[in-house]
Amino acid sequence: MSVQQLMVANCPRCGKVFQKNLRNQCSDCSRSMDSMLTSSLEFLRKNHRSTNIQFSEATGVSHEQMHTWIKEGKLLLSDYPNLNYPCASCSKPIRGQKLCPDCAYRINRDIRELKEKDRSFQPLLREKQTASAGSFQIRERLSGV
């Protein structure tokens, strides 16, 4: 006999107990989020050139919620030219990718530098591996080492 477990959790927004679902929130919060999104989209249809601040003040939607909708694809930046979201590294406003060009360049440069350092240590690692393994290379034997 197996006992079924109830798949319940507390809603992260209001704290009520609810049966787990794909949205990870209770039905009341889901309905309120849907109505907020609908009203926000209506505002943006009428004011498609509004900025993040104008959008947030007019609709009452927090910047974090707006960024979440952008990440989820519910707000398309291609339709609204003055909306943006923060870079994942420095929080500078961007309209595409996860990182601004400066942060992407910096990270790529750091990776290149680490690879160069790694290449400079490769001969030392090979020497250690051959010395510790007790093996030899043919050219070492021919050169009399």
- The percentage of residues in β strands lies in 5-15%
Count of individual helical segments? 5
SSE arrangement, N to C: EEHHHEEHH
Q: Please tell me how large the radius of gyration is.
A: 28 Å
Could you give the distance between the termini?
Answer: 73 Å
Number of strands: 4
Q: Could you give the order of strands across the largest sheet?
A: 1-2
Oligomer: single chain
* Principal-axes shape call: elongated
Structural class: mainly alpha
Helix content: 40-55%
The major sheet is characterized as: 2 strands, antiparallel
Mean pLDDT: 87
Stretches where pLDDT is under 50 for at least 5 consecutive residues are none
What's a concise summary of this model?
With 145 residues, this protein is mainly alpha-helical. Helices cover 53% and strands 7% of the residues.
Describe this structure in words.
The chain is mainly alpha-helical and 145 residues long. It has helices at residues 27-46, 52-59, 63-72, 101-133, 138-143, and strands at 8-10, 17-19, 85-86, 93-94. It has a two-stranded antiparallel sheet with strand order 1-2. A two-stranded antiparallel sheet has the order 3-4. The model has no long low-confidence stretch (mean pLDDT 87).
